[in-house]
Specification:
The complex is a heterodimer of chains A (341) and B (292).
Chain A (H helix, E strand, L loop, with lengths): L12 E16 L4 E17 L3 E5 L6 H8 L7 E6 L2 E2 L5 H4 L6 E4 L13 H11 L5 H14 L16 H13 L5 E5 L7 H18 L2 E5 L3 H7 L2 E6 L2 E7 H6 L4 H9 L50 E4 L2 E3 L15
Parallel strand pairs in A: 3-8, 3-9, 6-7, 7-8
Antiparallel strand pairs in A: 1-2, 1-4, 4-5, 9-10, 10-12, 11-12
Chain B lengths: L19 H7 L1 H18 L1 H4 L30 H36 L1 H15 L3 H11 L4 H28 L2 H8 L4 H38 L10 H8 L8 H28 L1 H4 L3
Classes of the chains: A alpha/beta (341), B mainly alpha (292).
């Protein structure tokens, strides 16, 4: 079986993540001895091809941002492999990783704090170019100016400081910085959630246009299902550090198979009247602590369809339809038929 | 869908050029402090022209009261206290400035490295805690008994215990700056550690560091005076406010002017430096400045 979520093994796979784990130690006491681990990401696998947007959705604290940060090697992975254009970068040292950063760039959630307030916009965007010695002097200025125009900013804004821009313009700066070194993969960690709704659409459209034009691979982390439906080619739903369902956009929204996905979709407001209203599934209780995840299926404590075996058996991610993987005991493989809830 | 660029904000309207007077009115403490320090600096530089030989003995003029001839009176050897105080200003300023510069520079380097590389942090900070527990005066006495008393030894002895204070401050600023997302952004875009430290972290430490430097300077001047008073500071052939006060101590009931004038100068100098420091802190810390 191919890695979950890989429609067909292909040479244009930009990123392949296998069984990625990130556990944060919990330290306590005088000698800060490790008393436990927060299993922020616990065995996540997926792949992203050129020109493809994979969205990671889930509620706060499910580990979706940690996945992006770990791939960007801002966090050290605890286990698993991160294969970027054929090279496993998960075990590279701090200095060894640097050349590979040219192939992947990150867009951050907060456009206010992710730009150094003491540098001008031009300096911020030109930094990646100088880091890799890609341009100097007037060439650098010209490239930065064209990046500004590409993201919809006026080139004469280069001399301004971040505080002189609006939120949407700052996120455009963040996007220009990410594009500067012509990466093949963009890790976008909730790039819209700090923006006004009116500006969100503009920035989202910019990201989609850039993807079409430059054939970028996107790992798009978001909790906004409307945004995800708009930009995502494939969507992975995360719960407590694991992917519980991964499918292409249409299958996931039309036939969600995991009870958590159903609940998530049911919780989102539906603006379109034609769409049949989903049956409301209201989850009770809180998300269990990621430092002590439940036995068996991690969702069994809140699942409306819970069965006795759910607390014992940890369901693997199984392909139930072409390209549609789900980790639920209620959903056996396509041959066994569907156990309708 | 087409990209709709948000309109750029209109160019900042011609901001009213705040005149020098407005700045002066807003930052009175800095201005007062700077004026005093500037006067002191001029006096220190021009000491040989402003006053006579501070070492000239004139036994016939012993313990003279302040008068037209001897503005600050004379001491028990008939030396001109005015001349000694004027020359003493040099020592105070040299010690203050050198200690502030040395402690700030060394503290900055160690602090940035500690805050950025967490691996060395634990060890270096424990070492700094150890250094902090050494009293400047005892260290100076120890160093001077080991070596010949000189201005250099005094500066070194005062600098060493001041370094950990600067390190602690810089380290805490670096830790908070390092946690800000633009550092992650710089790392993710392939910026080298050295560039991150110099370009992204160092400028953010400048404001608290300048303020701390003024306090280090004031404290160094006081420590030097204390050392000289104890006889462990500048050698007796160099007049400093501390050793002038020390020598005048035995005669202060019959000749209080000997300790009064250097003491007054010391107090005014330290006050002026602290005024500048407080003013800078208010000016550079936007949270306090907004309230003004």
């Amino acid at each position: 079986m191919s890695a979950p979520g890989t429609p067909s093994p292909s040479a244009d796979v930009v990123l392949e993540v296998k069984d990625l784990k990130k556990h944060f130690p919990i330290r306590k006491g005088l000698f800060s001895s490790v008393v436990g681990h927060v299993q922020a990401v616990d065995g996540v696998s997926f792949s992203i091809r050129r020109g493809e947007a994979l969205c990671l959705v889930g509620e706060s604290g499910c580990g979706k941002s940690t996945v992006a940060r770990t791939i960007a090697r801002l966090e050290e992975p605890t286990a698993g492999s991160i294969v970027l254009n054929g090279t496993d970068i998960s075990a590279l040292g701090e200095g060894e990783i640097r050349p590979y950063r040219r192939q992947m760039q990150m867009i951050f959630q907060d456009p206010y704090s992710s730009l150094n307030p003491r540098l001008t916009a031009g300096e911020i965007v030109s930094e990646p170019l100088t880091n890799f010695g890609l341009a100097m002097g007037s060439d650098l200025q010209a490239r930065v100016a064209s990046l500004f125009e590409r993201v919809g900013l006026r080139a004469d804004a280069m001399a301004k400081y971040p505080h002189e821009f609006s939120g949407g313009q700052r996120q455009r700066l963040g996007i220009a910085r990410a594009l500067a070194v012509s990466p093949q993969l963009i890790l976008a960690d909730e790039p819209l959630s700090a923006l006004d709704v009116s500006v969100q659409a503009q920035v989202l459209n910019l990201l989609i246009d850039l993807q079409d034009e430059l054939q970028l691979g996107y790992l798009f982390v978001s909790h906004d299902l409307a945004v995800v439906e708009h930009i995502g080619h494939r969507i992975a739903v995360m719960y407590l550090g694991r992917i519980v369902e991964i499918a292409d956009n249409a299958s996931l929204f039309d036939t969600p198979l995991h009870p958590y996905t159903e609940a998530l979709l049911a919780a989102a407001p539906v603006p379109e009247v034609q769409r049949t209203k989903r049956e409301r599934i209201i989850l009770t209780g809180d998300v269990p602590s990621p430092s002590a995840p439940p036995s068996g299926c991690r969702f069994h404590t809140r699942c409306p369809y819970v069965r006795p075996e759910c607390s014992r058996i940890d369901p693997p991610l199984v392909e139930v339809a072409p390209g549609h993987h789900v980790a639920c005991l209620l959903r056996p493989g396509p041959s066994a038929g569907h156990a309708a809830p | 869908m087409a990209i709709v660029a948000e309109p750029l904000p209109a160019p900042a309207s011609t901001r009213q050029q705040s005149g020098t007077m407005r700045w002066v009115r807003r930052h009175k403490t800095i201005v007062v402090g700077l004026v005093i320090l500037a006067a002191l600096f001029i006096v220190a530089v021009a000491a040989p022209w402003l006053a006579g030989d501070p070492l000239q003995f004139e036994p016939t003029n012993r313990l003279k009261k302040p008068s037209g001839e001897f503005w600050f009176g004379t001491d028990q050897f008939g030396r001109d206290v005015y001349s000694r105080v004027v020359h003493g200003a040099r020592i105070s300023l040299i010690v203050g400035l050198c200690v502030a510069a040395l402690a700030t520079f060394l503290g900055l380097v160690i602090g940035v490295l500690c805050g950025y590389y967490r691996r060395i942090d634990g060890i270096v900070m424990r070492f700094m805690d150890g250094m902090m527990s050494i009293p400047a005066i005892l260290l100076a006495i120890a160093l001077i008994t080991l070596m010949k008393a000189s201005l250099f030894i005094v500066i070194v002895a005062i600098t060493i215990p001041e370094i950990p204070r600067v390190v602690r401050l810089v380290r805490s600023v670096v830790l908070s700056v390092r946690a800000r997302p633009f550092i992650d952004a710089a790392i993710a875009s392939g910026t080298r550690n050295s560039v991150i430290m110099i370009r992204h972290i160092l400028p953010n430490t400048a404001a608290p560091l300048i303020v701390q430097a003024t306090y280090v300077c004031a404290s160094a001047i006081l420590t030097e005076a204390g050392l000289s008073f104890l006889g462990a500071g500048t050698p007796p052939e160099i007049p400093s406010w501390g050793n002038v006060i020390s020598l005048g101590r035995t005669f202060f009931q019959i000749a209080p002017w000997i300790i009064f004038f250097p003491g007054l100068c010391l107090a005014i100098t330290v006050l002026a430096i602290n005024l500048v420091g407080d003013g800078l802190r208010d000016m550079l810390d936007p949270r306090i400045a907004r309230r003004m």
